[in-house]
Specification:
By secondary structure, this protein is mainly alpha-helical. The chain has 16 helices and five strands. It is elongated and about 90 Å long.
Length: 378
């Protein structure tokens, strides 16, 4: 059921038309967002009114109103045209791959992905559209997201779509990258010219946990190297000049974690002065170990842990948090990603007192487990 655009080249007064189904009885005029010059692009879509009424609360109300007034068209403003085209095709088709070929998916931009988010939020599509949209996003993510070429603005724009389309692996990868690579305050980012203000990540679900995780990573690295290296970095009478590049870096708070660890790569004790008592330590090993622990510490935020830990509204679920203990020492039981305690801790969306109780229970269980293990070995 391929869609066809008009064969007539649009003139100044003509609008491109896309026929979603041949037996259409409703025209939807979509006006895209204004560009930097204040101009819009527009496209008319020929659709089936019964399909939209059946599958969208928003269109159900609009179509009823327009037909009562004798109109057979609807006007939408500030919507991504390509995003609306995708939605209309999926709504009218039973074959996802036929409706949206993979070559089309690969060429969707991040702004158009946000357009899909806005369209779903604005039009209140029924649940049956959710699986094909999630599948489409997974294919798009696989084709367009390369973590080895990631940059900060793109990662910040990816966070909300990963949550909206329930892409646990993508959300964990993006949030891990941000925690290790951002050199300042982490926040989400919206595409330029996006008018819809309703969709955003709640600060307790993203901004707070991300910046806490970033700060914690620096603490872990600091604690790993300071015991052995701290005294040496403070010494003024030591001639081990290879430490000077590190000592001169006085803006650690404004540097990403990976940036700091990159500076530590220059740490080299091969030119230490013979007989320097302060340097009579295997410093390289200390730094390498601290970097290893830090680089493996945080696995990103876990959507499953976030969803499971949210406070429940029903009275019968007041004690829901008691069932979120670690299982056999692991914190990722029934999660789609593998992760440790730091990710579970940062992803917690419930009350902190409940989180602290669960951690206390975990430490008690670990102590009992170690006691049994020690007893068996005697």
């Amino acid at each position: 059921m391929a869609d066809t655009a008009t064969d007539t080249k649009p003139t100044k007064f003509q609008i491109p038309t896309v026929t979603i189904v041949p037996d259409s009885d409703l025209t939807i005029l979509v006006l895209g967002p204004k560009d930097n010059n204040g101009k819009r692009t527009s496209t008319a879509f020929k659709v089936k009114s019964d399909v939209l009424k059946e599958k969208s609360q928003h269109f159900r109300s609009n179509i009823k109103f327009n037909k009562t007034g004798g109109f057979n068209h609807i006007r939408l403003e500030d919507d991504e045209i390509k995003a609306m085209r995708i939605c209309f095709k999926l709504l009218h088709s039973t074959d996802e791959e036929e409706a949206i070929p993979e070559v089309v998916i690969r060429n969707i931009t991040i702004a158009e992905i946000w357009g899909l988010v806005v369209a779903c939020d604005k039009c209140f599509f029924d649940d049956e559209l959710e699986p094909p949209l999630i599948s489409l996003f997974e294919k798009w993510y696989d084709a367009n997201v390369d973590m080895t070429k990631m940059h900060e603005d793109y990662a910040r724009q990816l966070a909300l779509p990963c949550v909206f389309f329930d892409h646990a692996e993508g959300f964990a990868a993006i949030t891990k990258w941000l925690a290790y690579n951002c050199d300042g305050h982490i926040s989400e980012k919206r595409p330029i010219n996006l008018k819809w203000k309703h969709m955003h990540l709640c600060p307790p679900d993203f901004v707070g946990p991300m910046n806490q995780a970033r700060g914690r990573l620096k603490t872990v690295l600091h604690n790993g190297i300071w015991t052995a290296v701290g005294a040496l970095l403070k010494k003024r009478d030591c001639d081990c000049g290879q430490l000077e590049p590190i000592r001169s870096r006085r803006h650690f708070p404004k540097t990403s974690l990976n940036g700091i660890m990159g500076w530590l790569d220059i740490f080299n004790t091969s030119v230490s002065q013979v007989g320097c008592s302060g340097c009579d330590v295997n410093w390289t090993q200390e730094v390498v170990q601290a970097k290893r622990v830090t680089s493996r510490y945080f696995d990103g935020l876990c959507l499953d842990c976030m969803n499971k830990s949210r406070p429940k509204r029903k009275d019968t679920d007041e004690d829901y948090w008691q069932y979120l203990n670690s299982v056999d020492g692991r914190w990722d039981s029934n999660c789609r990603i593998r992760h440790g305690e730091p990710t579970w801790y940062s992803s917690w969306c419930g009350r902190d007192e409940h989180r602290q109780r669960l951690m206390k229970n975990h430490r008690i269980e670990q102590g009992i487990r170690r006691g049994h293990s020690g007893g068996d070995s005697d």
